[in-house]
Predict the 3D structure of the following.
Amino acid sequence: MKLLALLMAVLTLAMASPSAKAPKSKPISAGKKSTAKSSKSSSLVLLYTSCARGQIRACNCTKFQFGGYGRELTLLKSIRKSNKDVLLLEGGDATAGDDFQAKLKAEVTSSALTLLGYAAMVPGEYELGKGGVHYLDYFDPKSVPVLCANIPSLCGTQQGFVPYVILKTKRNLRVGVIGLLNDAITQEMKRRGIELLVTDPVAKLKSLMPKVRAKSDLVVVVYHGMPDTAGRFAAVKGVDLVLCTHIMGRDFLFPDKSTNEVNATVDKKDDTYIIKGGTATNWSLGRIDLALSSSGKIKNATHRLFYLDRRYNEDPAMVKVYDEYNNKVTAAVLDQSKNMRSEMETLLVKRGVSVDNIRTRLRKSPFAGDGKCKECHSDLHDNWSKTRHARAMFTLDKTNQGFDPECVACHVTGANARNGFTNKKETPELVNVQCEACHGPGLKHCESPTSDYGAVGEETCRSCHTNERTPDFDFDTAASPH
Ligand code: HEC
Ligand code: HEC
Ligand code: HEC
Ligand code: HEC
């Protein structure tokens, strides 16, 4: 959260207005078509994501909010349309967290990897249980192979957990992809009480190399680790490219303000290209364009990040997956709330309080609702009802997110107050950003109006208009709420 806020603050400075250009994809070499005579491709587009950390979809609160699999699929389709040989890889830590919603999101992530056509994934610490959930169990390795060459307890244990895959592109280029993890993770996991042996990746690579090399035109290592520990792979003969997919916050790259894209680095050690993955929180898609000689050697490599902003509509197929997710979130929210209430009631009944008493006491709301305010402040109410505050729940409903705990707090009234908004079904009278979202609970004021009720300051607005959600919010120039 803190990181995101910081990122957004910087983004605000860096970005004026992203242009609404159509997505473009750039073939790296002109004259690409003339190589059709060769059975081998002369270019390859390697696409990747990593460190999405459970961000399956952008909230869309502002044009600065990027990302999500829905937008990614739209961009993918356009890249695949204009390039023959495209491979898409997931570099790990696609998931994070451990609450019910994080788990439902992991299901979405898993569906997304299949739907978007990922060719393989390498697990990160979160898939291996760092956050308390073994998220790898949520994925289907038969559908998207999981590359885990140096994890003996996983590799080869069932179909789809493999050390490497040989991927054949449309133009019959054979790309060997080996998945490795940083062995330092063994210690880190131990500290979290997880027994997981990750063996020396260099030794593993050495032993695999002859086999993989013999079957491939190009050998790519996807390494869930930091680039500063990746140089050692260059010493193993035959590795063409290492993609490092563990990214730290400080390595975040900010997009160019006019294109929402940014060039990223490509390093080379001996004959091996080393690429530091730049994607995180699912905001961008990484794209590596490789120009290849007829023998499959890399002649040139470029690396660019495409931030998934509003110019990319969400693909309908992915929206369907989101909708199923939202239905599950809704059911879980209603279930939880029902259980919590009945537990509370049981507890109080045990203490000898009558059920009717409990119901009125538990739900005695200090909020009056905007209809009550209208009775005496009808002009202000008229004005307010024309603002977006008055339709904030409708905004969420449009995308089937009206029950999402990650959304509602700022799109309703009194979400954090005692006996304020709980959910749309139980407290429908408190949806939208009503009078009392700013002025505070007003039932008492309605009964005996005084002028000292309801002072509003900048901090009131800022509780919802955070840097992350409204990076360009300016209290002094904001339109009057009524
Ligand atoms: C029964 C009529 C009545 C109702 C209902 C009512 N108000 Fe008021 N409100 C008043 C009156 C009268 C004042 C002025 C009190 C004074 O100056 O002593 C006032 C003052 C206020 C003020 C302070 C204005 C100032 O002087 O700074 C706010 C804010 C306010 N109302 C908001 C609300 C909200 C929000 C609601 C609904 C929850 C609401 N009122 C419902 C009659 C009402
Ligand atoms: C409870 C959360 C919340 C609070 C408090 C809040 N806002 Fe908002 N505001 C929102 C949301 C959510 C939207 C967008 C609603 C939508 O379009 O769905 C919004 C939209 C706006 C807009 C655009 C409105 C339009 O009609 O174009 C302005 C301006 C604004 N808020 C100003 C303020 C100011 C000024 C304050 C403080 C006095 C404030 N807001 C307090 C949540 C809040
Ligand atoms: C921290 C408070 C907060 C949370 C949480 C939040 N929003 Fe918002 N949202 C806002 C504010 C404030 C605005 C108004 C932004 C502006 O216009 O500057 C807004 C605006 C929007 C808009 C833009 C409406 C428009 O017409 O431009 C959409 C869509 C939206 N939110 C959806 C969501 C979804 C979906 C979630 C959950 C994933 C969510 N919001 C969570 C505060 C929040
Ligand atoms: C987004 C926050 C916000 C919402 C929602 C909001 N107000 Fe206000 N209200 C303010 C702010 C800020 C002021 C003081 C500055 C101003 O007058 O614009 C204010 C001032 C007032 C005042 C006293 C000054 C005046 O203009 O008479 C009253 C009364 C009032 N609001 C009532 C209401 C009622 C009734 C509603 C709902 C229909 C409402 N407010 C909704 C933020 C809000």
About this structure: Residues 1-39 have pLDDT under 50 and may be disordered. Residues 387-389, 391-392, 395, 410-411, 433, 437-438, 456, 460-461, 463-465, 478-479, 481 surround heme C (ligand 2) (CB under 6 Å). The CA atoms of residues 150 and 196 lie 11 Å apart.
